[in-house]
Amino acid sequence: MEPRSATRPRTEGVGSVWKTNNARQNKVLSEAIHIIGGGLAGSEAAWAAAEAGARVVLHEMRPVRATDAHQTDGLAELVCSNSLRSDDWENNAVGLLHEEMRRSGSLVMRAADAHKLPAGGALAVDRLGFSAAITRALEEHPRVEICREEIAGLPPPEWQSVVIATGPLTSPALAEAIRRLTGEDALSFFDAIAPIVHHETIDFSVAWMQSRYDKGDGADYINCPLDEAQYRAFVAALVAGEKTEFKEWEKSTPYFEGCLPIEVMAERGAETLSFGPMKPVGLCDPRVGRRPYAVVQLRQDNALGTLWNMVGFQTKLKHGEQTRIFRTIPGLENASFARLGGLHRNTFIN
Predict the structure, then answer these.
(1) Distance CA 125, CA 89 (A)
(2) Distance (Å, whole) CA 129 – CA 114
(3) What are the pLDDT digits (tens) for 25-67?
(4) Contacts of 265 (CB under 8 A, 6+ apart)
(5) Residues 6+ apart with CB under 8 A from 83
(6) What does residue 9 show for φ and ψ, rounded to 5 degrees?
(7) Domain boundary residue, one of 183, 201, 223
(8) What DSSP designation does 230 have?
(9) Which of 311, 308, 309 is nearest to 294 (CA)?
């Protein structure tokens, strides 16, 4: 399978010349490292291989084929959270991995550091700037060729070195080919996306800026406080709210436990959220001088600071219900949403 955007040999002149050039081109393509998928893993793999001296062909199906979660056709687009989690290399395993990647010349970490946003002890980035930096670096690398095409099945046998890095948003055709090859029947789970709010619509007579335990710059998150009555009414609304219905073939697909919809967590018990994404520890409401019963935190989502995402608020509530229920949160009564939450199916190998 020849990459769609690969340079084809000239066709003028004697047919044997064309065949010779075509054979040479096919040999170059077969000897290259083919990386399928231009997300975080594929982009990092392409960069590392090219920096080590290899010729790389990076295959990315967007924009030829879209996914249920991507918003752009940029490489390494962050579709759910804009946080890469803790950046504390001395006390956290994820932070240690970040530092190891930096010292290994990681493109992902270089872009993340260049587009870092305030996020307490976490490493959060401007999504668009982060993706654009990685896309530009790979487009400009002399040993990387980016082919915008779908690999609709297992790679051809003449490709000698292949990395499949399509991740959870693998195309249906490739996912089916992998399922047949591995014999796996359980190759999917559901993941969710949190809403994003316009900063100018947040009421700062109620909300305040503070990082949990004053980490980072001490005021990296917007905090919306709830007392006990408000919290219990909010949980009840989440449980009763109208949700997206699954298709029959989707009903046996599990959720990803690390990114549960907010209403699924609420269904597990009245206090689940107050010990989860709405925990108030390490925070003090300056209006009353004490910790609230529960809190909704928002994290900066773009470099301008005009967009803020609701931390841990991934959801499968219908859009109208999201707007209605989330506007009951103190400080968000007049919130305008740049993006509402959603649910998408992920693919993985067990």
Answers:
(1) 18
(2) 9
(3) 565 555 899 999 999 999 999 999 999 999 999 999 999 998 8
(4) 272, 273, 276, 277
(5) 119, 122, 123, 124, 299
(6) -70, 155
(7) 183
(8) H
(9) 311
CB–CB of 280/162 below 8 Å? Answer: no
Query: Do the bridges between strand 33-36 and strand 56-60 make them parallel or antiparallel, or are there none, so unpaired?
Result: parallel
The residue to which tokens 């004053």 are assigned: 214
Report the CATH number at residue 167.
Answer: 3.50.50.60
Q: Is residue 71 part of a domain?
A: yes
Q: What is the CA radius of gyration of the chain?
A: 23
pLDDT in tens, 242-253: 988 765 544 556
Reduced to 3 states (helix: H, G, I; strand: E, B; else coil), residue 325 is helix
> From CA 96, how far away is CA 304, in angstroms rounded?
29
For Cα atoms 96, 74, 111, give the angle at the middle one, nearest 5 degrees.
Answer: 30
CA distance 346 to 168: 4
Same domain, 38 and 164: yes
How far is 158 from 181, CA to CA, in rounded Å?
A: 18
Strand partners, 295: 225
Structure pTM?
A: 0.71
What is the residue-averaged pLDDT of the chain?
Answer: 87
What are the CA-CA distances from residue 130 to residues 69, 87, 278 (Å)?
17, 16, 28
Q: Which domain holds residue 159?
A: 15-82+126-183
Distance, in Å, from the CA atom of 268 to the CA atom of 271, rounded to the nearest integer, reads: 9
- Judged by average pLDDT, the poorest of 75-89, 187-201, 204-218 is 187-201
246 and 325 co-located in one domain: yes
Quick count: other Cβ atoms within 10 Å of Cβ 266?
Answer: 23
Buried (b) or exposed (e) across 100-134, using 16+ Cβ within 10 A?
ebeeeebbbbbbbeebbbbbbbbbbbbbbbbbbbb
The pLDDT value recorded for residue 6 is 39
Beta carbons of 131 and 72 less than 8 angstroms apart: yes
| Choice between 3 and 245, residue whose per-residue pLDDT is larger | 245
Burial (0-12, 13-18, 19+ Cβ within 10 Å), 338: middle
Determine which of 28-37, 58-67, 194-203, 266-275 has the lowest per-residue pLDDT on average.
Answer: 28-37
